[in-house]
Design goal:
With 123 residues, the chain is an alpha+beta fold. The chain has 3 helices and 5 strands, in the order αβββααββ. Bound molecules: 2'-deoxyguanosine-5'-monophosphate.
């Protein structure tokens, strides 16, 4: 499958420093920052620095080093935000059915309160 990356998306602009963000963690391969519209006391977005649309794009085309760096960043964010003890949810929406708003891969890390069941019954 071939994926088209739009470098004008909002997270690409954040990575280029064109739009401010509230950074939680940064490494060579990932940036983590607070969601502008938090849905839980902890709501952090973790994104890879490379131009990948979604998780399936990333796992198809990113190098092992990028993938490892991204996954490690997720772990670091959990540690920094203190969500490991009480638990959290990691969500990555993709495409139309996943209702992905920003076409740059991101994993939402949500925690700080009980999050309910995984999916709403209707869309
Ligand atoms: P998704 O539906 O998975 O594509 O979620 C995109 C998230 O991005 C959504 O929770 C709101 C957040 N968001 C949108 N624009 C901005 C922005 O400019 N800055 C930050 N920090 N978050 C944003």
């Amino acid at each position: 499958m071939s994926f088209q990356y739009d470098d004008q998306n909002i997270f690409a602009k954040i990575l280029r420093g064109e739009i401010p963000n509230n950074t939680v963690y940064e490494s060579e391969h990932a940036l983590a920052f607070r969601d502008l519209y938090p849905q839980a006391p902890t709501h952090v977005l973790v994104i890879p620095k490379g131009p990948y649309v979604s998780l399936d794009h990333f796992t198809q085309d990113a190098s092992d080093v990028e993938i490892a760096g991204f996954m490690r960043a997720i772990g670091e964010v959990c540690k920094l935000e203190g969500v490991s003890a009480d638990g959290f949810r990691a969500i990555s929406n993709a495409g139309t059915n996943g209702v992905q708003e920003v076409p740059h891969l991101h994993v939402h890390i949500l925690g700080g309160r009980p999050l309910g069941r995984m999916l709403a019954k209707e869309s």
